[in-house]
Amino acid sequence: MTGTGARVLSTVGVLLAAGGGRRLGGGGKALLRVGGLPLVERGVRALRDGGCPRVVVVLGARGDEVRRLPALRDAVLVDNPDWETGMGSSLRAGLDAVTAAGGSAALVTLVDQPGIGAVAVARVRAAHRSAATLASAAYGGRRGHPVLIGADHFAGVRAAAVGDRGARDHLRAHAAGLTLVECGDVADPADIDTPGDLAAFERRH
């Protein structure tokens, strides 16, 4: 396959789903149900329906239970034994898996943002032009997720992704080359970190 189709197939979805959800009771964010579905299943669906035929899911808290979900059968499941150190280690693990899969870009989403669906994923994925691409969703002009990281940037992102810092330092350093894709009309970027966040999200949706 050549042309645009080849670029689409080389975009690998990455769902960061390792968090323990301490402020939500510590049961693991991936298994928290919103709208009847575990957050991890919602995230995988959004990536697939948004045009990522290959999806990497980075697991941590309650990873053995998450692995047993039927919806994840066709995903690449990556365990992050260092998940408690913060999101940075999960992002590095996800990028390593994309490299192993031969992807020319990673499209990264977070499991605790269930309001970001397939339409936002597709919009950001469409910005993929080459391994040098950097793009992210924007909400009222402010950068958010999903984030598309071309393979040329993997080494730089890995170096900057420490503790709870993901790709933001690298994106800030390369702001001149970052494509912002407005998604505020089709997605809700709110994080689900507390029971109050969950209740507010369910009221809106």
Tell me what the structure shows.
With 205 residues, the protein is an alpha/beta fold. The protein is 33% helix and 22% strand. The protein contains eight helices and nine strands. The protein has helices at residues 4-9, 39-49, 63-67, 87-100, 118-125, 154-160, 168-173, 195-204; strands at 11-17, 33-34, 37-38, 55-59, 76-79, 105-110, 134-139, 142-150, 178-182. The strands form two sheets. Strands 5-4-1-6-8-7-9 form a seven-stranded mixed sheet, with helices on both faces. A hairpin with a 2-residue loop joins strand 2 and strand 3 (37-38). Helix 2 crosses helix 5 and helix 4 (87-100) runs antiparallel to helix 6 (154-160). The longest helix is centred in the middle third of the chain and has 14 residues, at 87-100.
**Which bin fits the share of residues in helices?**
25-40%
Which band does the percent of strand residues land in?
15-25%
Structural class: alpha/beta
Integer-rounded radius of gyration: 16 Å
The main sheet orders its strands as 5-4-1-6-8-7-9
* Overall geometric form: globular
Tally of separate helices = 8
